[in-house]
Amino acid sequence: MTEEQPPVSTTHIQQFMQRRLTALQKRNLLRTLPLLEHGNEPRIELAGRSLLNLSSNNYLGLATDPALRDAAIEATRRDGCSSGSSRLIAGNSVAYQQLEQRLARFIGQERALPLYQRL
Q: What are the Aminotransferase class I/classII large domain coordinates in residue numbering (predicted)?
């Protein structure tokens, strides 16, 4: 299947997008966003059914745990919501140093470097 040439004017863009949308609808490939009142809970209500939300990162309920939520709020009040800069430029925080030390002890190593990685 060959791709259509990109449109050049606003009218062409609208027509092009409408054709693509119609093609998706005809093939039952049009995705819609389900409306969830509380989408971050481990269990969700969807179409009148109670479901375990395994597509969420919160199926264990940690993101909505009251103690963890309160700790996050307190940390935000104390430290703000951003590192502001690289640790090499702006300096290291006591909390981050403690995290590295605790993580190293937990894994039985001299040092540890917590990394955030999206797969």
A: 51-112
DSSP 110: S
Could you give the CA distance from residue 110 to residue 17 in angstroms, rounded to a whole number? 56
- Single-letter amino acid, residue 113: L
Largest CA distance in the chain: 63
Distance between CA atoms of residues 40 and 36, nearest Å: 9
With the C-alpha atoms ordered 79, 81, 87, 91, is the resulting torsion angle positive or negative? negative
CB neighbour list of residue 24: distance below 8 Å, 6 or more residues apart: 30
What is the reported pTM?
A: 0.50
Rounded CA-CA distance 47/34 in Å is 9
- Are 96 and 84 contacting, i.e. CB atoms less than 8 angstroms apart? no
Average pLDDT along the chain, 119 residues, taken 10 residues at a time: 67 92 94 77 84 81 89 90 82 89 96 77
In the chain, helix, strand, coil percent, each to 5? 45, 5, 50
